[in-house]
Amino acid sequence: DSGVTQTPKHLITATGQRVTLRCSPRSGDLSVYWYQQSLDQGLQFLIQYYNGEERAKGNILERFSAQQFPDLHSELNLSSLELGDSALYFCASSAASGGPNTGELFFGEGSRLTVL
Amino acid sequence: SQQGEEDPQALSIQEGENATMNCSYKTSINNLQWYRQNSGRGLVHLILIRSNEREKHSGRLRVTLDTSKKSSSLLITASRAADTASYFCATGLNDYKLSFGAGTTVTVRA
Predict the structure, then answer these.
(1) Pairing of strands A64-68, A53-57
(2) DSSP letter at A25?
(3) A110 CA to chain B: closest CA distance, Å?
(4) In chain B, fewer beta carbons within 10 Å around the N or the C end?
(5) Closest alpha carbon within chain B to A96
(6) In a structure prediction context, what are the per-residue pLDDT tens digits for chain A, which is 116 residues long?
């Protein structure tokens, strides 16, 4: 058990809908990372937050947004969903702030999103 | 595009044999990490090697890093069925992103 909790584990929805994925980092970790894993794209970095502030942005679509709350949990919002958004979405946390000090990431078990 | 690329894409070995996989990357790094992912599960950190280190061991794992060739290798000795998984390298850059390769799928046959 990594200590990172993601909900929901599975989600099935229709095109055009909006969903929110939730992540609770390990106790004490200030950094939260979001990754998307699909068969054709592999593991893609979406976004990183550190202590409530956005630190880095990757290949995150404009239809997607995220935030980290004062209690350090994070949410990833996906809107106007398309078939191609079907994927495993992982949250990871780290004690480090990122950048040159990016150390070990602790991954949750993921949220599997299926868009029909 | 991926910063790190693992090679081979897939590997099938007999239990007890060694498994070696390689990772090549494109730009200078601060550290390189290896992760394991069992099917459909979250990634688990295996080992981190810093840019000023050349070799690191952890149990049955041995990682090497050659910064002049921009490559790393992961060796799993005396493989077990439980080692069946996908293995990813990840590179830490100055831009705060930890970028993962496409992974090597290892199957250990009993």
Answers:
(1) unpaired
(2) P
(3) 6
(4) N
(5) B96
(6) 889 999 999 999 999 999 999 999 999 999 999 999 998 778 999 999 999 999 888 889 999 999 999 999 999 999 999 999 999 999 999 887 665 556 789 999 999 999 99
SS3 A53: strand
All residues of chain A having their beta carbon less than 8 Å from the beta carbon of residue B90 are 105
Q: Are A96 and A50 within 8 A, CB to CB?
A: no
Task: Give the β-pairing of A42-50 and A31-38.
Answer: antiparallel
Mapped onto helix, strand or coil, the DSSP state of residue A78 is strand
For A26, the token pair is 């390990």
* Count of other CB atoms within 10 angstroms of residue B90: 26
Tell me which chain A residues have a C-beta less than 8 angstroms from the C-beta of B96.
Answer: 48, 55-56, 98-99, 102
Dump pLDDT digits (tens) for B42-87. 999 999 999 899 999 999 999 999 999 999 999 999 999 999 999 9
Q: Which two tokens stand for residue B32?
A: 């390189």
Question: Residue A28 has which token pair?
Answer: 């004490």
